[in-house]
Design a protein that fits this description.
By secondary structure, the chain is mostly beta strands. It is 5% helix and 43% strand. It has one domain (2-274): Jelly Rolls, CATH 2.60.120.
Length: 276
C-alpha cells in the first residue's frame, strides 16, 4: 500500500509537474485480480480499486493499518464503474451493476469481490476512512441515488449527479460518496469551483474516451495549477484546494470525501472573477 503525506499550500506553490503528480495523482487503480491501495494522510483515507477477472479477490489487511482486519476501525464505500459484479461481506452477497454502490460498516471482517463475466469485469473503486461506530452494510443502485440533472449546455456543464453516501442517503460515520455523469457536449465539472475546508476529497475520472483526457485544476483559488489526468485515474484534493476539471470530451467521475461532516452542500464557492 503506497503512502502519500500531506502537502501545505506553501509547498504546493513551489512544485513542478512531476512533484504534483507524485503527491496528488493516483494511477494503476484497476489491475487484474489485485487490490490496489493508496493511504493518504488527508483525513487518513485509503483509496484504490479492485478488478476481479475470472476469480474472487479478497480485501487484504495491510500491515500499515495495524489492525486485526481491514474494517476493524474503518468503514468502506464501494462504487462499481465496470461490468456487473458481486461484493460479499461476512457471507452476504450484493449484486452490483455499473454505477451501483455498496457501503460496508465498521466491524465487517471478510470482504471479497468478483465479476459476473470475466470478459467484462467489474471495476470497484473504493474509499475507506476511520469510523467511530457501526452502521449497517447497505447496497444502492443508481436509481436509488435520486439522480439530479444540473448545469446547462450553454455553459458546457450539463450533468447528472448521483448521491449515495451522505446525510440523506446511505448512513456512514464520515464518508460522502457519489458520482457525476456529464452529458454529450459538456466538459466542465464542478462549476463554479469551490473548496470545503472541513473535508478532503478524491476524484476518480472514468469513462474517458480513448485518446481523450481531463485537465484537472487544483490549488488555492488565487494560486491554481493543473494536471492532465487519463481514464481510471484519481486526484487527491486537499481541503484548501479547489477541484474542477475540463475534458476534451464528456466523461464521468466519482467524488469521494471524508472529514468533519457529511453535508453534501457544505461548499465554499469561489467567484470566477477572483480565480488566478
Amino acid at each position: 500500500m503506497k503512502s502519500i503525506y500531506e502537502t501545505s499550500p506553501r509547498e504546493f506553490e513551489r512544485m513542478n509537474t512531476s512533484e504534483m503528480r507524485e503527491d496528488f495523482l493516483v494511477q494503476s487503480i484497476f489491475i487484474d485480480n489485485e487490490v490496489s491501495l493508496t493511504y493518504t494522510h488527508y483525513d487518513r483515507m485509503v483509496t484504490g480499486g479492485v478488478k476481479p477477472v475470472g476469480k474472487t479477490v479478497e480485501l487484504p489487511n495491510p500491515d500499515d493499518l495495524k489492525a486485526e482486519y481491514f474494517l476493524e476501525r474503518r468503514e468502506l464505500g464501494i462504487i462499481n464503474i465496470g461490468g456487473d459484479g458481486t461484493v460479499t461481506a461476512d457471507g452476504t452477497s450484493y449484486e452490483v451493476e455499473k454505477l451501483g454502490c455498496v457501503y460496508l460498516g465498521k466491524g465487517t471482517k471478510e470482504v471479497s469481490f468478483s465479476s459476473k463475466d470475466s470478459s467484462s469485469p467489474a471495476k470497484f473503486f473504493i474509499l475507506s476512512a476511520p469510523a467511530h461506530k457501526e452502521y449497517p452494510n447497505t447496497h444502492f443502485t443508481k436509481e436509488q441515488a435520486s439522480p439530479v440533472t444540473l448545469g446547462d449546455a450553454a455553459t458546457s456543464n450539463n450533468r447528472t449527479i448521483y448521491k449515495y453516501i451522505h446525510n440523506d442517503g446511505i448512513m456512514s460515520c464520515q464518508l460522502v460518496m457519489g458520482l457525476t455523469v456529464l452529458s454529450t457536449g459538456s466538459v466542465w465539472n464542478t462549476m463554479p469551483p469551490h473548496t470545503h475546508d472541513r473535508r478532503s476529497e478524491i476524484y476518480c475520472y472514468f469513462d474517458v474516451p480513448e485518446n481523450q483526457g481531463i485537465m484537472h485544476f487544483m490549488g488555492k483559488p488565487d494560486e491554481t495549477r493543473h494536471l492532465w489526468v487519463q481514464n481510471d485515474e484519481a486526484i487527491i484534493s486537499p481541503p484548501w484546494s479547489i477541484h474542477a476539471g475540463s475534458g476534451t470530451a464528456n466523461y464521468s467521475f466519482i467524488w469521494a470525501m471524508a472529514g468533519e461532516n457529511k453535508d453534501f452542500t457544505d461548499m465554499d464557492h469561489v467567484d470566477l472573477n477572483l480565480m488566478r
